[in-house]
Amino acid sequence: MNNYLKNEKQKILSVAFNPKKPMIASAGHGGFITLWNLIKADNNEWKSEIHKTLKGHKLAVESVVFSPDGNKLISCSQDQTIKFWDLNGDINISINTIELGNLYQGMNISGVKNLDEAQMDALEELGASRDRKIPENPGGPN
């Protein structure tokens, strides 16, 4: 089992087992999902072979999970999307995508108290906005 997913081409962040058939899904920094068939060899050891690769996320895929019937897969990514995949089809594209967008889009954080500058900057990166004061005499004496 040490070289179980030896052909994986990315650092893995998530692995899920199919509840109905000997298959696992792996996902990670490469932004794609690999489906692996698990095959029990004569010596009772398990081997894996790539079944298919699912591509569609733009950034790292952080989590994957199979549906209870094992026919669909759900993935979420750092690109702020959740994708639904039909595993029975020949086309390896998602059947639905939910775009999460920026969590704090449109929120004005001007005047918010008890947050330091780094926290305010982090909120801005998540979509918040604030009115920035321009120094009256930049670079000059106070």
Question: Uncertain spans, ≥5 residues at pLDDT below 50?
Answer: none
What's the story with the biggest beta sheet? 4 strands, antiparallel
**Largest sheet, order of strands side by side?**
1-2-3-4
Task: Indicate the radius of gyration in whole angstroms.
Answer: 22 Å
| Total beta strands | 8
Secondary-structure arrangement, i.e. CATH architecture of the largest domain:
Beta Barrel
What is the approximate shape? elongated
Q: How large is the share of residues in beta strands? A: 35-45%
> What is the residue-averaged pLDDT?
83
Q: What is the CATH topology assignment of the largest domain?
A: Thrombin, subunit H
User: Helical percent range?
Assistant: under 10%
What's the CATH first level of the largest domain? Mainly Beta
* Helix run count: 1
What class do helices, strands and sheet pairing give?
Answer: mainly beta
SSE arrangement, N to C: EEEEEEEEH
Notes on the protein architecture:
The longest helix has 9 residues, at 117-125. The strands form 2 sheets. This protein has a 4-stranded antiparallel beta sheet, with no helix packed on it. The protein has a 4-stranded antiparallel beta sheet with strand order 5-6-7-8, with no helix packed on it. The protein is mostly beta strands. The chain has 2 domains: 12-99, Thrombin, subunit H; 102-133, no CATH class. The model has no long low-confidence stretch (mean pLDDT 83). The protein contains 1 helix and 8 strands.
Please summarize what this structure is.
The chain is mainly β and 142 residues long. The protein has one helix spanning 117-125, and strands at residues 12-17, 23-28, 32-40, 46-55, 61-66, 72-77, 81-86, 94-99.
